[in-house]
Every structure is written in structure tokens, then in C-alpha cells.
Amino acid sequence: KYAFCACCVGIILLPCMLIMLGLNEKGYVCREKDIIYAENDATEASCTGTPPKDQFVFFSCAIDEKKLQKFTLKDFNPDFDADLGNAITFNSVAASQTVEMYQCIESISTSTTGTGDNKKTVKTYSYRMEWRSQSIGSTGFQDPNKAKA
């Protein structure tokens, strides 16, 4: 009885494990391909000056921590409040900032019911919270009360 159950489980698990093994090998090959590309096609950037734009480069030089640029919030937004603008500082070779807002997003789905003269189109509005880099205005929402809930 138990041997039969174990055999059935094995029959199911073997193909699943083979699929997982194949996916793992594919991931390894893709990563290895990227590493080989980097080794063959990357150009060494000068330790002094600006690296070339739109090229795959690498640095092979010591970084002097005393010469790193100091970044503050005001470097990303000059209109930032003076007191808060210096609240966060860090030293780095380069820096960038991505600003996102957690906001309500409205989705509309349309369905058609009935046939002939009884045909009706029904729009259903749903709301969810998402991080977005663009501001989504809620003034045009179909049901602002549901958006707040």
C-alpha cells in the first residue's frame, strides 16, 4: 500500500524536479553568458576623469575615500528645505534618486451581459494601492469613497 503511494509521488515529483533543474541550468547559462560578455567587451575606464557614456566599463583603481563627492538631499532637489536638505549626507562616487509615492490606483473592467436588445455593458471600478513614480490624481476617480477605503 505505502510502496504504491511512494511510487505515485515519485512519478509526479520526477518531472517537477527535472523542470526545476532545467530552469536552474538556464539561469546559470544566462549569468555565465553575461560574465563572459563583460570579460570580453568591457573597456577599462580611466581612474581620472569621466567614464564614456553608453559604454560597458569597469574601474580597476583604488578609491580614495577622502576624494569622494559628498551628496545631500539638496543635490537632488535644490528647492529642498535648508534644514532637512543637510539631514541626510553620504559620500560616494555617484548617486541617483528615484522618488515614488504609495497611492491609490483605479482600474476599470468592462463586461457585457445579455443579448440583442437586452445587451448591457457594465463597468466595474476597483482600487488598489501601488508605488508609482508619477502622480495619479484622484479627482477623476469614479467612486472617490471606495478609493479612500
Summarize the structure.
The chain is of the alpha+beta class.
Write a structural description.
With 149 residues, the chain is an alpha+beta fold. Helices cover 33% and strands 26% of the residues. The chain has helices at 2-41, 82-85, 144-148, and strands at 43-44, 57-58, 69-72, 89-92, 101-113, 120-132. The strands form three sheets. It has a two-stranded parallel sheet. Strands 3-4 form a two-stranded antiparallel ribbon. Strands 5-6 form a two-stranded antiparallel ribbon. A hairpin with a 6-residue loop joins β5 and β6 (120-132). The longest helix has 40 residues, at 2-41. The radius of gyration is 28 Å and the shape is flat. The two termini are 54 Å apart. 0% of the residues are buried. The model has no long low-confidence stretch (mean pLDDT 85).
Salient structural properties:
alpha+beta; 149 residues; two-stranded antiparallel sheet
Q: What spatial form do the alpha-carbon principal axes imply?
A: flat
N- to C-terminal separation? 54 Å
Number of helices: 3
Helix content: 25-40%
Strand content: 25-35%
How is the largest sheet built, in terms of strand order?
1-2
According to DSSP, the number of beta strands is 6
- Please state the structural category: alpha+beta
Rg of Cα set: 28 Å
Quote the average pLDDT: 85
Main sheet makeup: 2 strands, parallel
Uncertain segments of ≥5 residues (pLDDT<50)?
Answer: none
SSE sequence, one letter per element: HEEEHEEEH
